[in-house]
């Protein structure tokens, strides 16, 4: 399996949409078409950004969405990793790690100080992955991945 991480482009809508639908279903959500298009529009504009994980054989197998946030007291900015999703049949193959590493590298290139994300406390698999990055956590299962 060879996975490439690439920026989300307008032509990727249908590949993204299939994964996004599976992602929201896994969260027990049923977004309206309007809500889905709001996310897509944000990812195509300046509000948020996204990347896709593409396998040479399986096609588009995962995504990550992230946005910039300000850390006023520290006087810097970070990335809020909003969503990470990998198709269930492609898990345990390093795809999520590649997505997070890509976001971390981009944060470093853009001189962001941190990548931050949250997860559900009961999501043991996600927490195990995130802790491999040596990210810090607090009472709110908030993870900070220092960069640079």
Q: Count the beta strands.
A: 6
Principal-axis shape: globular
Task: Give the strand content.
Answer: 25-35%
Rg (C-alpha, Å): 15 Å
The major beta sheet can be summarized as:
6 strands, mixed
Kindly report the average pLDDT value: 91
Number of helices: 4
Uncertain runs with pLDDT below 50, 5 residues or more?
Answer: none
Question: How is the largest sheet built, in terms of strand order?
Answer: 1-2-3-4-5-6
**Alpha-carbon distance between the two ends:** 29 Å
Based on helices, strands and strand pairing, what is the structural class? alpha+beta
Characterization of the model:
The chain has helices at 13-26, 33-44, 95-109, 124-132, and strands spanning 3-7, 49-55, 59-71, 76-86, 114-118, 142-146. By secondary structure, the protein is an alpha+beta fold. The chain is globular, with a radius of gyration of 15 Å.
What tags apply to this protein structure?
6-stranded mixed sheet; 148 residues; 4 helices; globular; alpha+beta
In a nutshell, what does this entry contain?
It contains four helices and six strands; from the N terminus they run βααβββαβαβ.
Write the topology of this structure.
Layout: E1 3-7, H1 13-26, H2 33-44, E2 49-55, E3 59-71, E4 76-86, H3 95-109, E5 114-118, H4 124-132, E6 142-146
């Amino acid at each position: 399996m060879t996975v490439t991480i690439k920026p989300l482009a307008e032509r990727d809508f249908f590949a993204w949409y299939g994964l996004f639908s599976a992602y929201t279903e896994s969260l027990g959500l049923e977004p309206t078409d309007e809500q889905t298009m709001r996310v897509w529009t944000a990812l195509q504009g300046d509000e948020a950004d996204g990347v896709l994980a593409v396998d040479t054989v399986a096609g588009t197998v995962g995504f990550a969405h992230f946005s910039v946030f300000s850390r006023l007291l520290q006087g810097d900015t970070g990335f809020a990793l909003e969503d990470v999703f990998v198709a269930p049949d492609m898990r345990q193959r390093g795809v999520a790690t590649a997505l997070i590493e890509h976001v971390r590298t981009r944060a470093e290139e853009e001189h962001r100080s941190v990548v931050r994300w949250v997860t559900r406390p009961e999501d043991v698999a996600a927490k195990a992955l995130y802790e491999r990055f040596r990210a810090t956590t607090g009472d709110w299962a908030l993870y900070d991945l220092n960069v640079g």
